[in-house]
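Possible regression after last week's pipeline update?

I re-ran a chain I had predicted before the update to compare outputs. Posting the input and the new output here so someone can diff against the archived version. Not blocking, just want to make sure nothing changed silently.
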Amino acid sequence: MVKITLLILTLATFMSASSFEENCLKCHSKDFKFAMMMKKYTQNHSSERKIKEAIFDYLKNPSADKSVLPYEYINRFGVKEKTTLDDATLREMIDIYYKMFNIKERIY
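New output (post-update):
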C-alpha cells in the first residue's frame, strides 16, 4: 500500500513538473531570469503567500504597474499577455515556480 502511494505521488510530481515545463519554460528558459524575478518578488512581497498572490494577480491581469521587472525591460519587451491557464493550474504552476526558484532555499 505504501509503495503504491509513493508511486502515485512520484508520478503526480513528475506530471506537474512536465506541465510546468510545457506551460512556463517553453517560453521562459530555465535561466537567471526566473531566479531574478523571484528575487524581485521576494524583495517586494516577502512572504510566500504574498509572493504567490502577487504572481497570480499579475498573470491573470498583467500591467506595467504590477510587474516587478525594471521599466527598461517592460519598455523593450512589453507586458506579458494574460494567461490562458485556469486558476487551479495557474496556482499549481506558481507553487512549482516558487519551489524551484525560492531564494530562501538557496541560502546556505
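Follow-up from reviewer: compared with the archived run. The radius of gyration is 15 Å. Marking as no regression found.
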